Amino acid sequence: MNMHEEKDALYRCIEEGAKEIKRLSAQKGEPFTFCVVTFGCQMNARDSEKLKGVLLSMGCVETESEDADICVYNTCTVRENANNKVYGRLGLLKKYKEKNPLMKIALCGCMMQEEEVVRTLKESYPFVDLIFGTHNLYRFPALLLPVLRDDEKVTELWDKAEGSVEDLPIRRTYSFKSGVNIMFGCNNFCSYCIVPYVRGRERSREPEEILTEIKALAKDGVKEIMLLGQNVNSYGRGVKSACTFPELLSEAAKVEGIERVRFMTSHPKDLSDELIEAMANSPKVCRHLHLPLQSGSDRLLELMNRHYTKAQYLSLVERLRERIPDIALTTDLIVGFPGETEEDFSETLDVVKRVVFDNAFTFQYSPRRKTPAEKLPGRLSEEVMRDRFDRLLALVKEGAAAQAKKKEGQTEEVLVESINRQDETLLTGRLSNNTLVHFKGEPALIGQVVSVRLDKSMGFYYLGEMV
Ligand code: SAH
Ligand code: SF4
Ligand code: F3S
Description:
This protein is α/β, with parallel strands linked by helices. The protein folds into four domains: 3-156, Rossmann fold (3-Layer(aba) Sandwich); 172-286, Transcription Regulator spoIIAA (2-Layer Sandwich); 300-406, 2-Layer Sandwich (Transcription Regulator spoIIAA), CATH 3.30.750.200; 411-466, CATH 2.40.50. It is 38% helix and 21% strand. The chain is built from 13 helices and 19 strands. The protein has helices spanning 3-28, 42-57, 80-99, 115-124, 140-150, 195-199, 207-219, 245-254, 273-281, 298-303, 310-323, 342-355, 382-405, and strands at 33-38, 61-62, 70-75, 104-109, 130-132, 154-156, 177-181, 183-184, 203-204, 224-228, 260-264, 288-290, 328-335, 359-364, 411-419, 426-431, 436-440, 449-457, 461-466. It has a six-stranded parallel β-sheet, with helices on both faces. A five-stranded mixed beta barrel has the order 15-16-17-19-18. A hairpin with a 4-residue loop joins strand 16 and strand 17. The longest helix has 26 residues, at 3-28. The mean pLDDT is 96. The structure holds S-adenosyl-L-homocysteine, iron/sulfur cluster and FE3-S4 cluster. S-adenosyl-L-homocysteine binds next to strand 13.
């Protein structure tokens, strides 16, 4: 089957699925509901929007509660605690299913790409109806159909990507902002990381296809896009019409109606001066760069297979801040990589002190199956890891607060995202540099860009007033 035929076949499955949903709703006497729960990163969040699009097209009704008629877990396996969360919550789903015999449980995402996980699921969680992975996610309509129609148990897993249909229905979480996949997979094989094994080899989408998608999103009311890939700086390998990431970024920013462009994630080893120029030259490109450092120790960076040194990272930060003074820098940090000494760790603290990040995600090292680091000696004790983690986090918080303080009193453009969860009289919006601000305003402003004075910095967010 070519991709055109495959797409037609999938749309037929959606039509057939809609008939089944109708039948099930009649049986239940109420609309058939679904809930998609996302674990993990932005790529998974985007994939979940695809799953929701399919379920809505079949006539299912979305609900927040996992006690739904169809519950889908889109899983992450980057650290062991991500897996544990899924196993824990499956226990809860089992109880729901005992009360609701029509209920279907589906699992997909990165965790399913691990054979051991699927084996455990088969042995200990036989009530799961549907299991699929990352490479065949687009086949969701075809996989779900026999589950709905014949109450079949379905498992389909591919060990590599073999083409994909990208233009299936999508339900965006926000009407005014959207992720856009520009590439899939990863070839970097950082020694601690499982992503290359569960997401497969790096593949870039054709630039024309990406720009067509962005134009369609803009027509549909999207103002902010986030270009997504595990290492966007290596975008363009293998595409037919030569295009680098800085070129793609500049083209994306030119699309009429798009007011903001973000991207995730940048690997420091491939960050070019062209990218810094492209960012500096387009006011639509957000003043934020997420630049994972992982460790400040050259010895560990080498063992991690990161291909840069502490000095190179620091000089990159210097160039970025020189050319784009108001840029916010955020990062990812791992503590407790095998064999990490107090001296290695103090190098990480040193970079954090020198750079002063606007925010950082800090993680305790988690051994992952098949990765080279899993076999390294020198695992750290829980106590040492915890102690370093706490010290690092304290330093990160201090830096973030100092950075946020600098903007106090300034007025900034804010894209209004939602009503504040704690206080309904407040709106929550995001600055170009990705920081959140809460301020009084009407819900009708959601999706608009407004000016807000940043009255008080609260560390990782602001309290402000519209002006
Ligand atoms: N592609 C992105 C990272 C994706 S994973 C990049 O390279 O920047 C997000 C973060 O999870 C990583 O940056 C890393 O800090 C963390 N991480 C990945 N594997 C990990 C592991 N085995 N243990 C702890 N943290 C890990
Ligand atoms: Fe993992 Fe490294 Fe790829 Fe990021 S670049 S996804 S950390 S292997
Ligand atoms: Fe997790 Fe997969 Fe993303 S492992 S971090 S959801 S690519």
